Amino acid sequence: MLINKENFPKVALDEMNSIHDVEIDIVNRLYEALKDFKEGKVSQEEVSKLLEEFLKDVQEHFKFEQGLMEEYQFFAYPMHKGEHDRVLMELLELKKEWERSKNPDILIDYLENQFVPWIINHVQTMDTVTAMYLSNFLK
Ligand SMILES: [Fe+2]
Ligand SMILES: [Fe+2]
């Protein structure tokens, strides 16, 4: 398991927590598939499919938060969106790298050492402040 849902930070908006939960499931499945791919138990296509699914989910996740921030004119919207855009670019690069090299170690390393610390920190800071702000309108 890459991320344990049990001790993943929660924010003040249930919809955001649900989206994070779904994303954790998807990224955990991708991570397991990468490990299994290394042992020849999973095909390249299966990994590509899960990577695609993960990317789509991240895009939806970010779009959802950005939509609410715009709608309710959240003051730190540009900063929050900037972080989303930066990580999305990294993930798109990672996908290209996978298509090029089919090297699971690059993805495993990115997920463990970049994505996990980033998402935990992001949820504890920007998502937390954003959810607190939005909960004034949405609860
Ligand atoms: Fe989020
Ligand atoms: Fe966010």
User: How much of the residues is beta strand, in percent?
Assistant: under 5%
Distance between the termini: 33 Å
Q: Find the structural class using helix and strand composition.
A: mainly alpha
Small-molecule binders here are:
fe (ii) ion
Total strand count, please? Answer: 0
H/E topology pattern: HHHH
Oligomer: single chain
Per the principal axes of the C-alpha atoms, what is the gross shape?
A: elongated
The residue ranges in which pLDDT falls below 50 over 5 or more consecutive positions are: none
What's the helical proportion of residues?
A: over 70%
Mean pLDDT: 97
**Radius of gyration computed on alpha carbons:** 16 Å
Structure annotation, total helices:
4
The largest pleated sheet is described as:
none
How many domains make up the coordinates? Answer: 1
Write the layout of secondary structure elements.
Blueprint: H1 14-38, H2 44-71, H3 77-101, H4 104-138
Helix pairs in contact: 1-2, 1-4, 2-3, 3-4
One fe (ii) ion binds near residues 65, 122, 126 and 127.
Architecture overview:
The structure is a single chain. This protein is mainly α and 139 residues long. Helices cover 81% and strands 0% of the residues. It is built from 4 helices and no strands. It has helices spanning 14-38, 44-71, 77-101, 104-138. α3 (77-101) runs antiparallel to α4. The longest helix is centred in the C-terminal third of the chain and has 35 residues, at 104-138. The model has no long low-confidence stretch (mean pLDDT 97). One fe (ii) ion binds at residues 65, 80, 84, 122, 126-127.
